[in-house]
Fold each of these.
Amino acid sequence: MKKIYWIALILGTMQLVTAQTTDQYSYNLMPWPKEIHQGAGNYVIKEDFTLFIQNVSSQRLHNGATRFLRRLSGRTGVFFEEGFPQKVKSAPSFIIEVEREGSLQNFDDESYSLQITDKTIYLKSITDIGALRGLETLLQLVTPSANYFYIPALNIEDAPRFPWRGLMIDVARHYQPLDVLKRNLDAMAAVKLNVFHWHLTDDQGFRLESKRHPKLHELGSDGEYYTHEEIKEIIQYAAERGIRVIPEIDVPGHASALLTAYPELGSKKDTYTIERYAGIFDPTLDPTNEKTYQILEDVFTEIAELFPDPYVHIGGDENEGKHWDENPEIMAFKKKHGFQSNHDLQTHFNLRLQKILEKLGKRLVGWEEIMTPQMPTTALIHSWRGVEEGLQPGESLAKAAQKGHYSILSTGYYIDRMHDVNNHYLVDPLPKSFSLTKEEQKKILGGEVTMWGELVTPLTIDSRIWPRTAAIAERFWSPATVTDIQHMRKRLTMISFRLEELGLTHLKNQNVILRNISNGYQTDALQKLTKVCQPLQKYSRNKGGTEYKSYSPFTLFADACTTDAPDAYQFSQLVDTFITEAEVAQKPLESMFHQWIANHEELLVLKGETPLVSELLELSSALKNVSAFFLKILKQEGVSKADANDFASLMNIIKEPRADVEIVTYDAFMKLFEHLKKSEL
Ligand code: ACM
């Protein structure tokens, strides 16, 4: 057979599936793989499903494959005859072929390929970590039909775009128990994230046990800290899932908790207490005191013994140096050494830590403020500031790469700011606008989602991290061309629900909170209201960092609300459709207005039963009245001048945040109003 004929045959049976052609091929994959080729038929999951791991003896992969079998069985309801990977190869349905064990470091291979036919599944990878990534893809492909579950016949070639794909969890502002961390590590693995950055210390808590200086955790943590055994448990749990763990000890600022234990290390001769508010505070380590370095060296030595990763994060952010300026001895030290600014003094401090870490065989990571000319290029720069700090997003990232530092991006991935997923999804660590050489581009390792913990507790943290982080994970893993927002949102809905399989509480805890609010009464009406509300954005929920202290309740309506309020999103889509094709959207719009009117009546039932709903009734009542107004216009019942005036005052109510949430339909209401006014309906 002629070669050309072969090619035609292959192309004829295998169709390349891209994110753009996915209306046809709607796999709920996230992150979207590098290449998918559609095959013929389906692999049907049955009781005789068996799995064999070829070539490599990796405990990590054996355990990962066993978890895969449990999840597959749980998903499909099929009672497998074999619950574990085969010890001896015996006509397996699924073969995993791996060349070697991977190591948890930058640039080790995480690629894999999947060949799924109607008869067998092959997963091939260089490393066992690559195979784990492939197993997650396979689980995302499991599809139901009327009588069975199947995996569609496909060929997938996949590899990450960036080697550093992280999630930072701040456990200092609010302590997060091990089970919270573990379920989030499972979710990270499900979307192919591979770095857990553990923000262990801050003004509100020093949460790492120190055997050499136990006062640090005893006085700095209210008893909520991680023992060495627990740290090892998390590192092991993460490593089993192909995830690295980077600890952060944030110094010299953000140090109130540390100074509560060791006030003599402070730049102000004072006593210190654990901070209960949110914000940027003055307590700062004294960089002229040798004891500061002794204690930090001891802490880093313990860290080096515990954490296998080569990188240790020293924070270094937001030190305003107020206490340095107020201390004449520190000022004299600064003068003696010819330091022009507090930044120079902080560089002196950072370089001391850099040497300590180097001695311990570790490399330093710091927030972008650590990047000064003297900082060796072995230090990894963590870019986080943006427009609000008067900088271009990613400015320090590109600069760091040009100087020869490895760097990672967090600007744009601050999920605690409660922006919609669209907002984060298109932020690219390596946008086309960067004019970097190929070598410089390689220095940009990827990015990290940052989950700052001021406003989250174990009850709510999952709903702040997920599902948006899955979309950001796609940015870190998938080709830069995968940018279709509609397609991402569609897949994300399913991925979000799938994450529950791993024990995440981001969906179910909404009802836990609402039951508390309703005091055990029906929560349907409250839930309906959450679908148009979102918590206040950009830290305005916690005005000046003082409305909420670390021990305030995080069980309020705002905690039950999330970003991307689904009904609000649907409503704004409908308004857009209405403007171009009124007849298509009219009925669905009317239906939404009717629902909001009915919902208010239902919510009124709770009025006499609990004090926690009164503020919500104002919101709900405004929504009801606006709905009635629009219905009147849509049904052409005539609108009086008084009605229009009422509309204006209603919109003022809608615009005004209440109960720490805002109704997200404001813009769409205004758009619809303006359109209707123009069309003189
Ligand atoms: C930071 O957000 N202060 C790194």
Amino acid sequence: MTNPTTPVRVRYAPSPTGIPHIGNIRTALFCWVLAQQTEGQFVIRIEDTDRSRYDADAEKAIFESLDWLGLGWDEGPGKGGPHEPYVQSERKQIYIEAAHRLVESGHAYFDDTTPEQLHALRERQRAAKQPPRYDGRGRHRSPEEIEESCKAGLPITIRLKVPEFGSVSFVDAIRGKITFELKELDDFVILKSDKMPTYHLAHILDDHAMGITHVIRGDEWISSTPRHLLIHQALGIEPPEYVHVPLILGKDKAKLSKRHGATSALEYRDLGFLSDAVFNFICLLGWSPGDDTEVMKREEIVKRFSIDRINDSPATFDAEKLEWMNGVYIRNMDEDTLMGHLLPFMERPESEGGLPDSVTRPIDREYLKRLLPLVHERLKLLTEGTETLDFFFANNVSPAAEDLLGRKMDIEMTERALATALELCKTATSFEPEHLETEYRALAEQIEMKPGQLFSPIRVATTGKPFAPPLFDTMSAIGQDRCIERIENALSVLRSAAPASTD
Ligand code: GLU
């Protein structure tokens, strides 16, 4: 299907039963993109009719995910619109009335089969190696019998009468024509005994009432679509265009799940991913612009998105690619913007991955700005700001003795390296990186060590880590006094480790 040229009305209709995962959010994102492209409307509707599975935290997470990804909606909770309310539990009466109308028109019927009877039926079918299905017994119940069951307090449902023969078809925008034989379907519930509609009935009534033109949803719903087509027929309304998007698999080809790591947009936010990078990455799960372009700004995605380039085979979730993409977005950012993103991560409590609690908040913005060029190119995640920069902010560092020993260096040699480095540090007339580099290179020559042999223990002494940004820029940013202190401390660490390691 080529892209609609008139404004679409699309909806994201999550059930607040769990934290929305990437696959679920992808539907929201495709809807949003299509609405932007056609200057249509993006509607949010909360499908909370299964009250036993309602989860307030999940609902909160849905809105938080949309906000974080910048998927603003034109109509829906918190925004209002001409089709309020946008929460299904508040639309109960609409569904009850429609279900009763379907009974009156002969398309549906009341059923008083009890859960126990249904269970016994399924058991018998299982024993006879038949597929479990409802046998339509309610079709033969008289209004009086139903009335009696109702008075006796038995649960009453409304089921749709599914024709016994024939077929229904629809044209899926991605997979083309799909046909289902009706003999495979049983009479299914449209209104539950608690007077709540099933998803099947509720979403159709709402999509119709809200003027939804395109239903974009996961392809796990394809098998339910014949039911939806039958409800449309019974109601005498036209179905929307269906766009069933493919499943998302992990790299091992198994359905994406917790086993593969983070699966919700909010987890990625907390892991230090940028909303723009996640947006870009999710768009490419099942869709591609048709060439090799991967890194695309929102506007470009909105311009290039096309339904006919959505794949019909499953998408693969490649977490490494997401990390790479995040790195690209970070590199493309100017330093002020990067700083704005890093600060909340660095200023979190230490227990949540922030800088040591001993570092006073708010941290020195000017100082951070000076440090950013040293790490900017290498950052892939916003959380890495803390681990790559913590030693600049900390009062002191605690290098491990084994890290202080450079390659092919023993304690004695390392001690000599550090002791001479300390002297030079104390007498340095300038702490500019270029000056330090000249001086320390000359020192290496003088004490007959390779530059790397001298620099490695200094790096560990001043930063506490074997890997850090370029040494002389780092020393310069740490400053002379703290460098002196840290090298002195490293020497005492080394000396106290000496007897044990020479045993
Ligand atoms: N409430 C359904 C879900 O969360 C919506 C499916 C649809 O988009 O029609 O999966």
Amino acid sequence: MDRRKLVVGNWKMNGLAAQLGEVEAIGAFAAAHPSVDVGLCLPATLIAQASAVSGAAFIGAQDCHMKDSGAHTGCLSAAMLTEAGATSTIVGHSERREDQGESDADVAAKALAARAAGLKVILCVGESLAVRDAGDAEAVVSRQLLASLPDGAAADWLAIAYEPIWAIGTGRIPTMDAVAAMHAALRAALATRIGTQADGMRILYGGSMNGDNAAELMAIADVDGGLVGGASLTAAKFAPVIEAAG
Ligand code: 13P
């Protein structure tokens, strides 16, 4: 199955209007690499302005609420994000699962709300270091994926991001064999739920991906791109990752 590579930057709680020039430069670089789908998941405050300058890079959010509207101070609905210019959103990032106590059921509900508002979704899963050290990471993350998977999951609107928690922002990554084994396990888990749709669904790797390791990671058969934090904050750092996917 030939899956287009998808490379997405997650700026987390970084970025002010002063950084819109980086968005513009990344969008221009994406335009020069049309074989790769490139996006930036930005702070919500930047989505509207970024959408106007992002060129070939799509703009996404980092989370959305599962409800359409209501008394949820400080939260943003999927429709609000769509109106601002987002075309996709991350759900279930480990930092939100941990900081905001989001459950697998919350993550599935958020994915459905995003889809209903017309957003594409990147659903994150990944294990702690304790789980990795215990030797059952593939089973644990496969269970987490199936518990977080929304009804109607399909390759045309949903992608998965495997992000080992211990690799995020640490400069450490799993061995290539471990990444290959996990991505194969996740695709097999998907197939038990969605059958042949699993063949087309993109499974990204995330966690300390950068210009030095991206080519090797994305050469793995079931790795269909990357979800990139620190190395997506400037065009200079992100460009080699996009290049590695092309
Ligand atoms: P880093 O690339 O900074 O490790 O972050 C990965 C991540 O959490 C992307 O969502």
